[in-house]
Amino acid sequence: MKKTNFSNNTPMADGLDSPSLRILAGIGKTDPSETRTLFEKALRELNIEIPTLEYAAELIVVDYCEKIISGRLTPLNGTQKMVNNVSYKNINIDIDELLIFVGLLSEYDDFGDDYHIEYYGEEHCKGIQFEILERIKLEANNYLSSKAAQ
User: Fold this and answer.
1) Domain co-membership, 40 together with 89
2) 91 by DSSP, 3-state: which?
3) pLDDT of 19-71, one tens digit each?
4) Which of 35, 50, 65 is the last residue of a domain?
5) Are residues 71 and 130 in the same domain?
6) Under the phi-then-psi rule, with left for phi > 0, alpha for psi from -120 to 50, and beta for the rest, what region is 71?
7) Of 98, 91, 92, which Cα lies nearest the Cα of 136?
């Protein structure tokens, strides 16, 4: 089986074709389990490897880190989306590198709550949140660098 990178087009526009892919392309709203079965069959017909959950999670983290670094997403929005997508529907993927982002997101939220604002003052809390957003960018860069070195 092979791993395939697609362009921004659909797989058929990228030149891939199989009986199940044709059916899948024309299918309307249907039962998700039926769609999944058909999707997996199409991948097998095309000899495309279905990634493990761990590998898929790594791809998600890389994608969001790139979007954070490039400025296409804010550090806060990118981190929220990253964490939500990797832990989708309680399928918690155990990748240690994600923990720093979970921790920074939690800390950012802490310094936005009423207790912290009342105790430390709004200006101080906003300063801490700014530092956390800068740290997210640094950690996103560190993550991408570590993946590039592998």
Assistant:
1) no
2) coil
3) 877 887 777 777 777 788 888 888 888 888 887 877 888 888 999 999 999 99
4) 50
5) yes
6) left
7) 98
Total number of domains in the chain: 2
Is 59 found in the same domain as 19?
no
Cβ atoms of 133 and 108 within 8 Å: the answer is yes
Q: What DSSP line would sit under 18-35, residue for residue?
A: -HHHHHHHH--S--HHHH
Shared domain check, 70 and 122: yes
Domain boundaries, position 73: 53-149
- For the chain, the straight-line distance linking the first and the last C-alpha, in angstroms and rounded, comes to 22
pTM of the shown model: 0.73
Each residue's pLDDT tens digit, 64-92: 999 999 999 999 999 999 988 887 655 55
